[in-house]
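Subgroup meeting minutes
Present: P.N., E.W., G.H.
Scribe: E.W.

1. P.N. recapped why we're keeping a running log of single-chain structure predictions: easier to compare across weeks, and new members can see raw inputs and outputs side by side.
2. G.H. added today's entry (161 aa).
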Amino acid sequence: MSRKRLPLALLLLGALAVGCFSCSSMPRISVHDDPLSGAEHVKLGMAYEAKGEAERAAAEYRQAMNREPLARLYLGNLLYGQGKLPEAEAEYRAALERLPGNPEVMNNLAWVLLKRGRKLEEAQDLAERAVSRAASAPARAAYQDTLSAIRAARSPGVTPQ
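Output recorded in log:
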């Protein structure tokens, strides 16, 4: 090799070495799919909620909502507990779209409408449907309480509590 080509060869060899070393970095681990199921996110949300960690619970319910329709019911319950009635209503309505026959969702949406003092006719219809679809006597009694409160609120001179 001539002396003129030697610097060029060293330059190419150096570039090759730099390229190889930069390619041989530590492998990166990236998770593209959520390792938890929707039901697992709901359970985790319930655990956070039980510990009083509402924001973490809400985050878990939101993670689950595309795969687990009940997540919207739980998020609605959490929001209701925080006094965020418009947001709770929105979550219950979204849950009802995905779970149209679920009496718990119907009852909770009816209760929020009562507490907001709006759409009481819709609230009564929802509560009546919840009562008729209750899976157990205790659930039926709870839904009947909601229905009774709505009927009382619809009577003249009565305001929701």
